């Protein structure tokens, strides 16, 4: 929007000879063409004084087209339709006092806007914000919203990087969602895809053949040209997108999808500049840039002056894979290198990645990089995310794959561990809705997507069987998407699960020592599926978390120093996953007092002379008495 009225249009199309702006009308009037002027560097521009917010337009390139704007702020008819002018200054923000969430105190919550509520809109999602704040969520990680084809999809095949999809509302509805989140004390980060664009509705190459790399490909198509000839405008296209989300939508950060596929052989790496641009744009606000990196390159979160990329956090698949094996004994595909033992879970709590350069049989190569010296909060731990739930074939949530007691215990480890925890929408109330892969494409592309999806799932032996393949949901079926929509009534029906998550997050937030950055942590294995973690407090008010994922365990003798209470004090149970409020069966004393001289008042209480008795499939938090 031009400051004195009208709209200034500008687009990069370095190899065309004539570029026209085509102004369209929603009332059926004939389109009007305006010739744009060539600038240095391959840009074309022009001021249209009678254009304004709501004006529909496209570009015609050397007589071909018209095509939507590569930096369109809104595509009201989808990626193949006209672009719409949006006035980014029209929305009235109320979050001037918002300063964000400290980087080391986040509790993430991943959600898909379309499946989060029955209406599937920003406005409907905003109504759920008070409940998420009460739960203890500090930060929403929103799955990609860049415009994509069809009427439903995960969003990772986006083609309009600057245009929030019309499926969830107007861009101002997105702004209102962020504004209300900030009012509720919740930060919002957006999942963005800078490794490729989707195949349907991608018109970037109509404007320039230099958008995509001639040397670096991805599993999903050509990657962006970050280091080849004429890469400077492409880099700025992505970096301006980073700045756009941070400034025009007041976002608190980004989650970068599949950074291993963002290839850049130049210096500085584009990931370094993405982090720097995000922080520079968020003036006065805390900023969070999370990244997913399947090879687990910890350099991504090391400081730039130490040879890293300076990003803030990285997803830890190792913890997820080990935890899922511990919960249900999975041993296929990428789970084959994990045993789900107490040692793995202790090591993950202490060091983050489990594979830090060891041989990884599944991939027949070394995996991971050393993490020593990296703060624990930089690792994002999760039991569920969009990929992992969908990769179960039927999209089954974790609570369907294990016992309730074991899941409660491992949830305690997730939410009380030193790493940054992340929940996936509905996890907090054991949602019965699956989360399946869904993408609304035309028939030909839909067939290709379905074939690709089956090939991806074939790494799981059971999912490659003919009888199971026939059971897999069709990604292009609307029913597949609709099955994934959360049932809000389950928040009440499954209240014990919600209380479990709320109470654990309150403990994480309010306890001065649990998961507090800088507090020393150690851990020890008690048995194959039992272990303890100890947070050491400066004043001796240590916290001990005991987790038993196996059978009832009698620790007698107990020659493990971490079990000993602070000198002169005794342990008391401060919290238990077997509390009846969570659906548990209660927790008997761990280190019982000396045997009484007369029978106890309640004959149901069992008095022990042994050291400890850890109830099967249970987690307890111990604090010193007094």
From TrEMBL:
One of its GO terms (molecular function) is 4-alpha-D-(1->4)-alpha-D-glucanotrehalose trehalohydrolase activity. It comes from the Bacteria. One of its GO terms (cellular component) is cytoplasm. InterPro entries: DUF3459, GH, GH13_cat_dom, Glyco_hydro_13_N, Ig-like_fold, Ig_E-set, Trehalose_TreZ, Trehalose_TreZ_E-set_sf. It catalyses: hydrolysis of (1->4)-alpha-D-glucosidic linkage in 4-alpha-D-[(1->4)-alpha-D-glucanosyl]n trehalose to yield trehalose and (1->4)-alpha-D-glucan. Keywords: Carbohydrate metabolism, Cytoplasm, Glycosidase, Hydrolase. Residues 583-605 are annotated as: Disordered. The record marks 387 as: Transition state stabilizer. It holds the Pfam family Alpha-amylase. SUPFAM superfamilies: (Trans)glycosidases, E set domains. The active site is at residues 257, 292. Its EC number is 3.2.1.141. Residues 110-447 form the Glycosyl hydrolase family 13 catalytic domain. Pathway: Glycan biosynthesis; trehalose biosynthesis. One of its GO terms (biological process) is trehalose biosynthetic process. It is found in: Cytoplasm. PANTHER family: 1,4-ALPHA-GLUCAN-BRANCHING ENZYME, MALTO-OLIGOSYLTREHALOSE TREHALOHYDROLASE. Belongs to the glycosyl hydrolase 13 family. This is Malto-oligosyltrehalose trehalohydrolase. It comes from Gemmatirosa kalamazoonensis. The lineage of its organism: Bacteria, Pseudomonadati, Gemmatimonadota, Gemmatimonadia, Gemmatimonadales.
